[in-house]
């Protein structure tokens, strides 16, 4: 029983991790809390849905969801963030702007779906189960784990083994200096937002398949969980997002089995609050958090 | 004519409630605290008053006073841990606070009715009560704004370090901001309860948070008039934008992005700052011309 | 009026000893200079006095009062004010509002009065603005009263910061590079203001690069280099001190 919950938790957690990864990438790099990430996640689900509805094979729908969500994410950057770069108070302004962008995305989705919950046509995904010991895996769960692992590995490689990672660091430090050193900030923005969006888009379509429900406000609960993951793991830390995401998924699944979900939420958000007080930089974060005016 | 009043009265009533919530949000933002926790205090106030009045027959005014008092104390308590945080971390912490309150309201369903909501609250609040409440609130906002508290808030918002070196205790004034914010949200949450027959936890969740923030983004956070303008715009929007009614959310989103990009101080504050600059430029021009004429160069 | 005394003050940032074993006195009624090449630690010293940095060792006293661990706002209430190297005015406020904020330490009405609008608070605001106006007249800045502070010329901005610091009614005034970027005429005008302030009993600490300016105004000069005090005394003695000459001509200025 516990083993089953653990497995379920791992699967949920890996989706949390995928969602949180894109979120923490943007925060770690640009210090922006991008609340439109929820909308990007949702757009991945929508794009995937319409692709399948159009008759495309599922694997192609997945790819389209990924690319599409990546582009949506970049669109958000162009409309919500690029316009306010250069003025002070980027933290506050960017947050508000991202809320605005999210509202736009949700509104479009609401229109497209006629405010109804969309469901994948019957037979989109084969319903098969595998038993390994006491644990029962669905085919979908296995695919989710595989997809997430592949994407994570690819992302780590891209971030750490290529110059991209260094470029991100340069641009996040000082954009003008970075461009003087030959880094193209526009390209960095594009890559970062695209990757972030692509990851969220995949998460979106996977969740859409898991629960077979796609609706325009599906992103919000994941966004709220993402805050927990990202703070726990350390804002900006890729490893942290993955580990914390998994842990959250496991904890949530175990807790929900024994406790009412409202109480589970209370515990999770209380944990978030406590972590912010005790170690805002999270498990893996190294970033020192400013604490206002005090003798240092 | 009466038909017009009937149609628009609920709009006006919610506009008045919005003003209350807007001021609650403004208090913290004006002092430079990035708190978005008013929703939590509104929820506590709403449920507190609803339970006390419906289930315990308490006199509404007393219940409202208690709601405001809980808001004060809650604000004070929240300010303590939040003193160690700044910027987005404060925002996330207060967001967590709101979620905790909402999930507690959902959990204690015997007391609160849970997700089905709390119904059959006696309607004790009419339009004129709301008008009175708002007028009194505006009085307090004005008085505080003109006092040293208002000036201290403005200083801390613009440059915390400078404020501290001028003798402003950051901890003290941030705490005052939280207390005022909590009291306002708690009180108007209670008013909402007694106005709208029923409440449910989701009313005080993410959407509430975004709305309260939007009032201030649109109107401005440095003046007493700003929040009223912001609340007015948001309340009138669906009416003015009838054809856009279905796409109201989209329009709201665009408005937010545009405001942040082009009028980051909000409509009213932006106007005030712009007029100030214009007048200053005019004065400079007059001065130069006067000097020119005098010196005869 | 008390003197500001730094006793064996030092500041370590991890492995870096930014300020080591500094002993200094800023007596009332006089202008004391603190000079040194860039990066010598002058602003660090100021930050330690004003409550923005913790001291690693040593103590800072204002008369009998120990302000070594006092928080920034407590230091202000004790009577120490400062101006900033890179001018820090409140950008959204007018010049008059910027100055009035300097009167915060003198606010008499209680919080309660301010919260509910009692006459004591309502009377106070116009009184403070009147005082601010007087200060503007004293500095010749009346016509800028309602100008947004951010839009002023550099020299005027410095004056506003000065007025704000003076508004606190300090016993000790720390001036961090107050005439940087000014021409001689402007600097000399400000110098007259400093002399006036000192004459009224305030102890001024003038941190500056402009050596001529420092020599004209200061009776006592301290020289900091790489965090350590390398000389102190009357300006003409200090200027001929070989260590001081080396510090400046060593290509650091």
Describe this structure in words.
- The complex is a heterotrimer of chains A (296), B (297) and C (253).
- Chain A is mainly α and 296 residues long.
- Chain A has a single domain, classed as ABC transporter involved in vitamin B12 uptake, BtuC (Orthogonal Bundle), CATH 1.10.3470.
- Helix content of chain A is 73%, strand content 3%.
- Chain A has a two-stranded antiparallel sheet.
- In chain A, strand 1 and strand 2 form a beta hairpin.
- In chain A, helix 2 crosses helix 9, helix 5 runs antiparallel to helix 8 and helix 10 packs antiparallel against helix 11.
- The radius of gyration of chain A is 19 Å and the shape is globular.
- With 297 residues, chain B is mainly α.
- Chain B has one domain: ABC transporter involved in vitamin B12 uptake, BtuC.
- Helix content of chain B is 78%, strand content 0%.
- Chain B contains 13 helices and no strands.
- The model of chain B has no long low-confidence stretch (mean pLDDT 90).
- Chain C is of the alpha/beta class.
- Chain C folds into two domains: 163 residues, Rossmann fold; 75 residues, no CATH class.
- In chain C, 39% of the residues lie in helices and 24% in strands.
- In chain C, helix 3 packs across helix 5 and helix 3 runs parallel beside helix 6.
- Chain C starts with a strand and ends with a helix.
- The mean pLDDT of chain C is 90.
- The chains are: A mainly alpha (296), B mainly alpha (297), C alpha/beta (253).
- The interface between A and B is large, with 49 and 45 residues.
Distance between the termini of chain A: 51 Å
Mean pLDDT of chain A: 86
Number of domains of chain C: 2
Instruction: Give the helix level of chain C as a range of percent.
Output: 25-40%
CATH topology of chain A: ABC transporter involved in vitamin B12 uptake, BtuC
In DSSP terms (H or I, runs of 4 or more residues), the helix count of chain A works out at 11
Describe the global form of chain C. Answer: globular
Largest sheet of chain A: 2 strands, antiparallel
Uncertain segments of chain A are: none
- Oligomeric state of this protein: heterotrimer
Which parts of chain C are unreliable, with pLDDT below 50 for 5 consecutive residues or more? none
CATH class category of chain A: Mainly Alpha
SSE string of chain A, helix = H, strand = E? HHHHEEHHHHHHH
Largest interface comes to: A-B, 49 and 45 residues
Largest sheet of chain C: 6 strands, mixed
Give the rounded overall mean pLDDT of chain C. 90
Major β-sheet strand ordering of chain A: 1-2
């Amino acid at each position: 029983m516990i083993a089953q919950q653990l497995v379920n938790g791992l699967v949920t957690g890996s989706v949390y991790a995928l969602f949180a990864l894109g979120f923490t990438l943007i925060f770690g790099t640009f210090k922006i809390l991008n609340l439109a990430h929820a909308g990007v996640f949702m757009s991945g689900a929508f794009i995937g849905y319409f692709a399948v509805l159009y008759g495309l094979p599922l694997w192609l729908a997945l790819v389209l969801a990924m690319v599409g969500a990546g582009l949506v994410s970049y669109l958000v950057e162009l409309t919500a963030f690029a316009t306010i770069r250069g003025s002070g108070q980027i933290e506050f302004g960017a947050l508000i702007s991202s809320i605005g962008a999210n509202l736009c995305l949700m509104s479009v989705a609401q229109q497209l779906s006629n405010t109804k919950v969309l469901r994948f046509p019957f037979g989109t995904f084969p319903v098969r189960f595998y038993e390994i010991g006491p644990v029962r895996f669905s085919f979908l769960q296995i695919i989710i784990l595989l997809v997430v692992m592949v994407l994570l590995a690819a992302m780590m490689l891209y971030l750490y083994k290529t110059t991209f990672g260094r470029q991100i660091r340069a641009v996040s430090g000082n954009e003008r200096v970075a461009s003087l050193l030959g880094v193209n900030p526009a390209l960095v923005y594009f890559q970062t937002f695209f990757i972030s969006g692509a990851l969220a888009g995949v998460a979106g379509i996977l969740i859409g398949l898991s629960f077979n429900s796609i609706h325009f406000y599906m992103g919000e609960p994941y966004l709220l969980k993402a805050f927990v993951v990202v703070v726990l793991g350390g804002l900006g830390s890729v490893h942290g997002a993955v580990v914390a995401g998994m842990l959250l998924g496991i904890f949530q699944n175990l807790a929900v089995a024994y406790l009412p979900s409202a109480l589970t939420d209370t515990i999770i958000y209380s944990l978030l609050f406590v972590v912010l007080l005790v170690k805002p930089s999270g498990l893996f974060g190294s970033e020192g958090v400013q604490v206002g005016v005090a003798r240092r | 004519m009466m038909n017009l009043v009937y149609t628009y009265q609920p709009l006006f009533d919610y506009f008045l409630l919005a003003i209350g919530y807007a001021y609650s949000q403004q208090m913290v933002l004006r002092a430079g605290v990035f708190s978005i926790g008013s929703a939590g205090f509104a929820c506590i106030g709403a449920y507190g008053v609803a339970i006390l009045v419906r289930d315990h027959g308490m006199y509404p005014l007393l219940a409202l006073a208690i709601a405001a008092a809980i808001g004060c104390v809650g604000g004070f308590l929240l300010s303590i841990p939040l003193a160690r945080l700044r910027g987005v971390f404060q925002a996330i912490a207060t967001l967590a606070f709101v979620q905790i309150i909402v999930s507690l309201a959902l959990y204690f369903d015997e007391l609160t009715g849970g997700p089905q909501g709390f119904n059959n609250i006696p309607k004790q609040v009419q339009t004129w009560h709301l008008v009175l409440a708002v007028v009194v609130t505006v009085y307090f906002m004005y008085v505080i704004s003109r006092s040293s508290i208002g000036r201290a808030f403005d200083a801390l918002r613009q440059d915390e370090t400078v404020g501290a070196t001028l003798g402003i205790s950051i901890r003290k004034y941030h705490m005052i901001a939280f207390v005022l914010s909590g009291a306002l949200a708690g009180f108007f949450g209670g008013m909402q309860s007694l106005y709208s027959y029923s409440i449910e936890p989701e009313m005080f969740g993410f959407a509430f948070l975004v709305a309260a923030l939007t009032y201030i983004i649109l109107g401005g956070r440095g003046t007493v008039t700003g929040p009223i303008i912001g609340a007015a715009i948001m309340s009138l929007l669906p009416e003015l934008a009838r054809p856009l009614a279905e796409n109201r959310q989209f329009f709201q989103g665009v408005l937010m992005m545009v405001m942040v990009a082009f009028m980051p101080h909000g409509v009213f504050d932006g106007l005030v700052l712009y007029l100030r600059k214009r007048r200053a430029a005019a004065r400079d021009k007059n001065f130069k011309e006067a000097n020119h004429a005098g010196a005869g160069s | 009026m008390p003197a500001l005394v730094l006793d064996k003050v030092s500041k370590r940032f991890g492995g870096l000893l930014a300020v080591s074993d500094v002993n200094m006195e800023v007596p009332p009624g006089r202008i004391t200079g603190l000079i040194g090449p860039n990066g010598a630690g002058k602003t660090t010293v100021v930050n330690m006095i004003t409550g923005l940095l913790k001291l690693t060792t040593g103590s800072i006293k204002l008369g009998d009062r120990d302000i070594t661990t006092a928080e920034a706002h407590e230091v202000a209430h004790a009577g120490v004010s400062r101006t900033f190297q890179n001018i820090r005015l409140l950008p959204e406020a007018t010049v008059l509002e910027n100055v009035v904020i300097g009167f915060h330490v003198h606010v008499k009405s209680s919080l309660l009065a301010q919260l509910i609008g009692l006459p004591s608070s309502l009377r106070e605001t116009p009184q403070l603005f009147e005082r601010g106006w007087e200060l503007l007249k004293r500095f010749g800045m009346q016509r800028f009263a309602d100008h947004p502070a951010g839009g002023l010329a550099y020299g005027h901005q410095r004056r506003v910061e000065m007025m704000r610091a003076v508004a606190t009614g300090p016993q000790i005034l720390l001036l961090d590079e107050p005439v940087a970027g000014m021409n001689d005429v402007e600097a000399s005008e400000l110098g007259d203001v400093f002399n006036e302030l000192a004459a009224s009993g305030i102890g001024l600490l003038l941190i500056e690069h402009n050596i001529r300016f420092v020599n004209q105004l200061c009776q006592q000069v301290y020289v900091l280099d790489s965090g350590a005090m390398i000389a102190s005394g009357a300006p003409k003695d200090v200027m001929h001190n070989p260590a001081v000459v080396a510090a400046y001509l060593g290509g650091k200025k």
